[in-house]
Amino acid sequence: QSCVLVPGSWKNEKIKSGKRDDFHKLNTEALAYLKANNPKGLNALLSKEMIAANNEREVELISNRLTDNPYELLDEFYVVNKYADNDTVLVKSGEVNRYGLTYPYTTTEMYFAYFVPKKPDNKYMVSLVYAKFNYGWKIIKLDLEPYTINGKTAPELFALAQDQYEKKHFQAALNNVTLAISCFKPGAYWVYPDEIDAGKFYTKVHEEVNERYMYPLVLKQLSTGPMILRIYTQTNDEGTFPLVYYMTHFSLKDTNEVKKEN
Hints:
This protein has 262 residues and is of the alpha+beta class. Helices cover 35% and strands 29% of the residues. The protein has helices at 17-35, 39-42, 48-52, 56-68, 154-166, 170-182, 195-212, 255-261; strands spanning 8-11, 71-80, 87-89, 100-103, 109-117, 123-133, 136-148, 190-191, 217-218, 227-236, 239-247. The strands form 3 sheets. The protein has a 5-stranded antiparallel sheet with strand order 1-2-5-6-7, covered by helices on one side. The longest helix is centred in the N-terminal third of the chain and has 19 residues, at 17-35.
């Protein structure tokens, strides 16, 4: 009976220790090849289909991230599929960062591992998805996608945008829901239940901002009347920030007046 596979999913410490240790050894080997930007060495861990596909660019991008910052395992799942079709790991909590998995059936047994760095605030997630073939456990998908922006996940950014909207901070709400949408797919087959609502909220706020603010927008609160030309976000190593383009009526050589107006 101990050799019979029972359909189900097990997360993190719920995975049996011996099996979990084997998975971690595979991860250690895979991450070493990825960090070294060694796609040929990685082939030993890839499925036949993955080897046939050209993964060199994906390996290079992941290598750059692993070189910039040390990565740690965030979550892992071992699943035994019941049906040879799309399967799911359901959301089981009410936390803001709750998520599930929706993935295509590849083999009866599959394993998902998700890695993130401790810093910076703008984090990228590395995903490794394995399937058990008759020739062993092999990687069937590599992925690299944004996980957090300014230290917040997609659901956290969405919640922030909703709060800003209630306070009538419409442009800020639009900025943050836009950022949220950009990181709603951080991991391979990862599904946040708030994604659909965030998309609807983005459409609503975007339309309201377009109706409220026509550019160029003269700031009548200032006697000097600077004209706002464009507002959007810009990303650098320290985070993502609002960027405001405006036209001043002062000569830029008059630095004191320009700074005062700014």
